[in-house]
């Protein structure tokens, strides 16, 4: 039964993307029903794209930090990006910001295009623009809540970690900087 739990869809930069049965069954049902109603298929693909964009954002941040990406798994209501954890907690927290950053890169132009041109665009363009714009932005905001299981749980830890590891030290550390000279 374990082999039927996940279905490999494709790979992105060598990182496999899997779909869990909990998502694949509804997608198959929507595809069957979409034979008569194409709007359902457009909605399903748009929502799937929101999840995939979010997980690709995590992957991109991990690659920029030199961390190895293992896999992307898509479930019914969420996705999961697996990567090799860094020795530095701050870098692990930064990877959490990647999903929301990728979503913002998509929802900002989608909202702008929809706001400016929705009256002249056909419904099959407006529906994905609304989902990739407004719904995507709402999902990003909810995902930033500092609650267990959401990205916000890790994201907000990056602020105190930044001050712990990367902020320039105050004047009290002058004794540790003997190589610097003072000029009056």
UniProtKB/TrEMBL annotation:
Give the molecular function GO annotations: peptidase activity
The record's Pfam families line, in alphabetical order, gives: Peptidase_M50
Q: What is its main location?
A: membrane
* Entry keyword annotation includes Protease: yes
Compartments where located: Membrane
Task: Report the cofactors.
Answer: Zn(2+)
Which residue numbers delimit the Peptidase M50 domain?
44-102
Query: Which keywords belong to this entry?
Result: Hydrolase, Membrane, Protease, Transmembrane, Transmembrane helix
Any Gene Ontology biological process? proteolysis
Could you say which protein family the record assigns here?
Answer: Belongs to the peptidase M50B family.
Provide the protein name.
Site-2 protease family protein
Source lineage: Bacteria, Pseudomonadati, Pseudomonadota, Gammaproteobacteria, Cellvibrionales
């Amino acid at each position: 039964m374990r082999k039927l739990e996940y279905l490999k869809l494709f790979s992105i930069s060598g990182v496999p993307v899997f779909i869990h049965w909990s998502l694949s069954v509804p997608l198959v049902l929507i595809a069957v029903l979409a034979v008569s109603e194409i709007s359902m298929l457009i909605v399903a693909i748009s929502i799937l794209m929101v999840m995939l964009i979010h997980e690709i954002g995590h992957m991109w941040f991990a690659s920029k930090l030199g961390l190895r990406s293992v896999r992307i798994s898509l479930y019914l209501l969420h996705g999961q990006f697996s990567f090799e954890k860094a020795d530095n907690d701050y870098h692990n927290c930064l990877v959490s910001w990647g999903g929301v950053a990728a979503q913002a890169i998509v929802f900002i132009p989608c909202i702008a295009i929809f706001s400016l041109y929705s009256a002249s665009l056909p419904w099959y363009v407006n529906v994905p623009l609304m989902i990739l714009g407004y719904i995507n932005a709402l999902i990003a905001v909810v995902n930033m809540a500092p609650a267990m299981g959401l990205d916000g749980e890790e994201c907000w830890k990056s602020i105190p970690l930044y001050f712990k590891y990367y902020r320039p030290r105050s004047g009290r550390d002058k004794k540790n900087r003997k190589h610097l000279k003072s000029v009056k």
